[in-house]
Here is the input.
Amino acid sequence: MMTTPLSRVDVSPELEKLAVEVARHIKAEQDLTALSRQLLKLTVTPRLWRG
Here is the structure.
């Protein structure tokens, strides 16, 4: 079985758009996760200081 480098495969424009869209969603989800962690630190830390 021969393998073809991905750069040489003809990808339809629709499929390419879909791949870009999926990548955007993944990135957005990672950003949200990072943001929620930062918010959690901000909300938890003051409580710990007050004791």
